[in-house]
Amino acid sequence: MATKQVKLMDIALARSGDKGNGSNVGVIARSPEIYAYLDKELTAARVADHFSEIALGGVTRYDLPNLNAFNFILEESLGGGGTETLITDAQGKVHGLALLHMVVKIDESLLLTIKHD
Amino acid sequence: MNTAKKMIRVANAQGFWGDSLLGPKRLVEEGPVDYLTFDYLSEITMSIMQKQRMRDPESGYARDFIKMLKMIMPQCRDKGIKLIANAAGVNAPACLAATKQALSEIGLSGVRIGIVEGDDILDRLDSLANEGEELVNMDTGAALASVKDDVISANVYIGAASIVEALQQGADIVITGRASDPSLAVAPLAYEFGWSFEDYDKIAAATVLGHIIECGPQCTGGNYTDWRDVQDFAHIGFPVVEAYEDGSFIVTKHDGTGGLINVESVTSQLLYELGDPARYLSPDCVADFTTIQMEQDGPNRVRVHGVKGLPATDSFKVSMSYANGYKILATLCIGGPDAIEKAHIVSDMVFSRMKMLGADIPAEDRFLELFGSNVLYKGIVESPDQPHEILMRLGAKGMDANKLNVMSSEIAPVLTSGPPGITGFAAGRSRASEVVGYWPALIGKDKIKTTVKVEEV
């Protein structure tokens, strides 16, 4: 089967926001088949590695198979807390798009499962 | 006795303190709605309001709400639209007085206003400590004693029950202090459909509904990954939910408004600021987000159903803020070549000069962010070697505001005594501002007694 390199953005959507001294990134797969693929590929360890210079306290993943979605908690990712920090993205608003920059290898057949309406 | 309705429409008109004033105005004009909710409060808002109240005893609530009332109340009255707002902030009496004043200014009478109080425990911290409520920091495990003298605000996230009581007493407008965000939407459903708070699945469904709409247009296409699919951001529709007695509901928006409602845009907001999806804690219930079912139900309509819930825990969450020193931030624009190298020289220069003036800032309290050198996607995308321009954000933290303010006098001199290509000082001198620390804790529900008062004006 032919594989293709794509950005996570091509196969998923995301939304992020602050959670205390950290942030959360919700990820939605663009089809149930892609959810099954990301279930194996998009591990907490891989996301932690992707955010190694941002999420300093590690990453936890929760699953919402009913919505083809995952929820990642990025610990210590706001430079010291939403109300105290001086960093620009004090609420982790762009952490969702940051995750969607990840490059993944995927079977081309899975790309065909995405519906365009 | 309220006769049970088949369907009611609940819309969120304000997603935060400072949201567009067009939200409520358009919602009452552009289509049908039965209840408008106004969600003004966040962790930081409570401390700002408490500080405003310290300066002026007549302030400390969402003044925007009063402005809004004057704008929309005549139409709400005509159409029978009820309002639920956590606008009281930390000063319910002042908010009530201003509401009455506003209604009288626009010549409305016979309006029933409900006030829900009891969330503010700032004056009770000593007695609660004596009763054994430790209020340890949920995130760090630290004891409150370490910051108790610096606490600025302390509010309990209260639930929907008291709002339901106000509606039962005929309130047209219900004003609360720190009611939890989703509870503002749980209340009208529980009231209209006569739900018991022990009907956990239905209360959980309403909590999910409240969570979806609490940030206004963030569920109707705002802040959405596939933004090119979103029509007309300027006229984006605020969310309107058609809620049914069986706990199912349809997320939609008024016809002719901009935005996009599909399963992905609603799910995006469902995931916003989420922790463990199987245990979404609210004062009203524990909602299990892994049970939610969603499907498209026509253009810009998404049906949500199947939500399961569990009984609420026996504690309320408390949100406290405390004074935690000061911070200062100055900005300068630096043109290339060698913008990054020059920024580091400028930073060292400013901190050296501060030291010469007796304001030595330890390394761990210094802050330097070079916007344009890859700040947002640090370690994720490649950083440019030679950005043509960067925004230098230089800052410091500390307990002594005067010491930090020395920085403000040593920024402009950099233009004439530092490396070339520095500009953008137009904003003028910055000043040290207070740092507000956030202290989340839990408190036994038996310690909190909310009160409901409804009066007609």
UniProtKB/TrEMBL annotation, chain A:
Entry-linked Pfam families: AtuA_ferredoxin
The AtuA-like ferredoxin-fold domain extends over 6-104
Q: Return the InterPro entries for the record.
A: AtuA-like_ferredoxin_dom (IPR056362)
The name this protein carries in UniProt is AtuA-like ferredoxin-fold domain-containing protein
